[in-house]
Amino acid sequence: TAPLTSPDCLFCKIVAGEVPAEVVTSTDTVVAFRDIAPQAPVHVLVAPRDHHADVAQLAAADPALLADVVRTANEVAESMADGQFRLIFNTGTHAGQSVFHVHGHVIAGASLGWTPA
Ligand code: 5GP
Ligand code: ZN
Predict the structure, then answer these.
(1) At 34, which helix (H) or strand (E)?
(2) CA angle 92, 97, 98 (to 5 degrees)
(3) What integer pLDDT is reported at residue 116 of this predicted model?
(4) How far is it, in rounded angstroms, from Cα 51 to Cα 13?
(5) d(Cα 38, Cα 34) in Å, to the nearest integer?
(6) 53 Cβ closer than 6 Å to some ligand 1 atom
(7) 58 phi and psi, to 5 degrees?
(8) Which of 44, 95, 105, 115 is least enclosed by beta carbons within 10 angstroms?
């Protein structure tokens, strides 16, 4: 069955292969690709193939798919770093969300400070 999509969504186009991205790994349900503006040695975005606007909507609509995102985030950190990682879901414009197709930022590969704001 075709994935849920939203017109003119950048990450729908990336997961469909219609916009190029440096894909790290993918499964039937999620795609992991490098952030175009990395903020850490490893900065990978994990997005479900289905379009959901943010992590709260994903959790409500398809919790198993959210688990797939987390599982793939761990696999990315295992393969590209030491297995330790931060997983960030910016949720809402005030939190810095700019692409409204849910994606977890996998941040890894360095000893990370904690400066949430
Ligand atoms: P947000 O701010 O929504 O949490 O995260 C969006 C992220 O997507 C940003 O870190 C930004 O650098 C990244 N980004 C925006 N456009 C593109 C793109 O065309 N390709 C890739 N690989 N990353 C993008
Ligand atoms: Zn989308």
Answers:
(1) strand 30-34
(2) 125
(3) 74
(4) 10
(5) 8
(6) no
(7) -65, -45
(8) 115
Split the chain (117 residues) into runs of 10 and give each run's mean pLDDT. 93 98 98 97 98 98 98 98 97 98 96 84
Ordered domains of the chain (ranges, CATH):
10-108 (3.30.428.10)
CB-proximal residues (5 Å) to ion ligand 2: 6, 9, 11-12, 51, 101
| Known active-site residue 105 | no
The position carrying tokens 């688990």 is 67
CB of 39 closer than 6 A to ligand 1? Answer: no
For tokens 């075709």, the residue is: 2
Taking the centre of ligand 2 as the mean of its atom positions, its distance from the CA of residue 11, in whole angstroms, is: 5
Q: Which atom of ligand 1 is nearest to the CA of 96?
A: 2
